[in-house]
Amino acid sequence: MTTAARLSSTLALGLAVLAACVGGDAFRASKPSASPHAAPPASSLSASADYGAPASGGDTYSRPSSTATSPQPAPTERPGLGTVWGETVSSHVSTKPFERYSSSPFAAVTVHYNDAEGVDAQARYLGGVALQPLRAYTPNGGVSVALVDQNGALLPGGQMSGRTLVVGAEGQRYNIIIDNRTGGRYEVVASVDGLDVIDGHAADLHKRGYIIEPYSNLVIDGFRQSDDTVAAFRFGRVSDSYAARTSGDRNVGIVGVALFAERGSRWTTDELERRDSANPFPGDRAYARPPG
Fold this sequence. Notes:
By secondary structure, the chain is mostly beta strands. The protein has one domain (14-276). The chain has helices at residues 116-126, 242-246, 269-276, and strands spanning 14-18, 26-28, 81-90, 93-98, 107-114, 132-133, 136-137, 143-149, 156-160, 163-167, 174-180, 186-192, 195-196, 210-212, 216-220, 222-224, 229-237, 254-261. It is globular and about 80 Å long.
C-alpha cells in the first residue's frame, strides 16, 4: 500500500494498549470492551506447548468462553497453512493514551505466508524469486515487519510483483516483529488471517492497536486472551486454523500491519514526505542580478 495522503481530520483521544515490546511491556490503543479478547476455537488444538511459559494457574489451552463465535461447518480441506490457536503464553499489556495524527495509516505492510510447497507454487505463479531471510519495509524505510521463529530467527521469503511471501512449517510457532528505526511513536493495528490480533474478530482499521515507541521493537506473539496472556501463533492446517473455526477460512495465509502516526509527533507523514522529496539543487539557472 502506498503512503497515505495527508489528512487534517483528527481522531478523539483514545487509550492505547501497550503490547509486548522487546525489553519491556507493550501498550494497546483503546480501552477493552465488555468482551475485548479473542475467543478460543470450539475445540482444543493439538500443538504442543514447547515454547514460552504457559500462563500460571491455567490450562495449557483455554476452553471456549461464553462469547466464542459459533463454529462454522467443517470446511473442505485446503492446501497450505493457516494460523492455529496455540498454547497460552504470558504476555502483559497495559493502557496508554494515543491520539492519531490522521484517520488513515501512513503506511501498511502485508506479508503472505504458506508452507514451502505453497510459496514455491505462488512464486512461480508471480514470476519466481530466490528465498532468503526477509523483512518487509514501509515505503519510507523507517519501519520493518518480519515473521520470526521461536528462536527469533527471520523466516525465509521473497518479494515479487508487490507481494512479500514467507515460508512456514506446520506446527511451528512464530511471532510478528515490528522494528521502528525512527524517532516517531506509532500505533500498530495488526491482523492474522483477516482477524484482529487483540479481539479475534474481523480486522478493521478503526480498531485500536498496540503502541511502538521510537527506536524500539514490538513483538506480537499471539491472539490476546487477557491483559496478561495470549494464544500463541502456530502454523497449522487451514481447517485447524483459528479463522476456519470461527469466521471462515477465506483470508488465511496473510498478516497485515497498519501504522498510524501520533498527533504532535516530530516525524509525521508530512515531515517524512518533505524529507523524501527534498531537492538538493533548488535554485534556478538564472545569472546574478543587481540589487533592488
